[in-house]
Hints:
- By secondary structure, this protein is of the alpha/beta class.
- It has one domain (about 1-250): Phosphoenolpyruvate-binding domains (TIM Barrel), CATH 3.20.20.
- The chain is about 40% helix and about 15% strand.
- The chain has helices spanning about 5-15, 30-35, 55-65, 80-85, 100-110, 135-140, 155-160, 160-165, 180-185, 195-210, 235-250; strands at about 20-25, 40-45, 70-75, 95, 150-155, 175, 215, 230-235.
- Strand 2 (about 40-45), helix 3 and strand 3 form a beta-alpha-beta unit.
- The longest helix is centred in the C-terminal third of the chain and has 16 residues, at about 195-210.
- The chain is globular, with a radius of gyration of 18 Å.
- The protein starts with 5 loop residues before the first helix and ends with a helix.
Amino acid sequence: MKINNLEHFLSVTDSGKTATGIVITSHDASISELAADCGCDFVWIDMEHSPLTIVDAMHHVMALRGTNCAPFVRVAWNLPYLLKPVLDLAPAAVIVPMVNNARDAEAAVRACRYPVDGGERGFATRRATGYDRDPLAGYLELSRQEPRVFVQIEHREAVRNIDDILKVEGIGGVCLGPCDLSASYGKTGCFDDPEVSDAIDLVREKTLAAGVLLGGFCAGPFWSDRFMNWKAIGSDVSILAAATRRLIGKK
């Protein structure tokens, strides 16, 4: 869908390159516009671990129209009533947290698709049809694939069940959540711990081998030699804080 720049994002990943972006936690939509102008291929608008409201998310999504930057929106939980208003914003993808088994993945897909395609999404059109400019039939065809449903793997249970999760029809990608994943092993933030790194690499290798789009939060040197189709390289707040500390240190 051109208004969400999914085509540009996929052109990067289809070429074999890694698409890069940042996580948005601040309500000011100019940060998303800035990210697009800086060359980000996507932004991850985070409604799970930030004070962002649905109105804030809408403004971020709208700020990216006419750029080459695709908006992804992470919801707070795998629940239809949380996904429904986000879907109506017509983002390029939704990120669904804590998908630990095939049942969770199936529930996420159902919540994002209309009943005609086996889902349970409530019907509404706003941005996705150009505010009734575009034919309904064309929109319904697109809605079978958009927004992409990215299931987040961030618990050791999900690692055990990764083969079954990858078989679920309709998932549009896997999103690694390394912080919560490491925490589920009792080793929060210890990505270099063999148990944690082995779990991350297992999910990476199986997802890529299955031909499923792979991405996640990939800040720091641990990720430099680990290929992903897309990487969120930091958050707006962490990037600003790091730059501020560097500038202060130079005085």
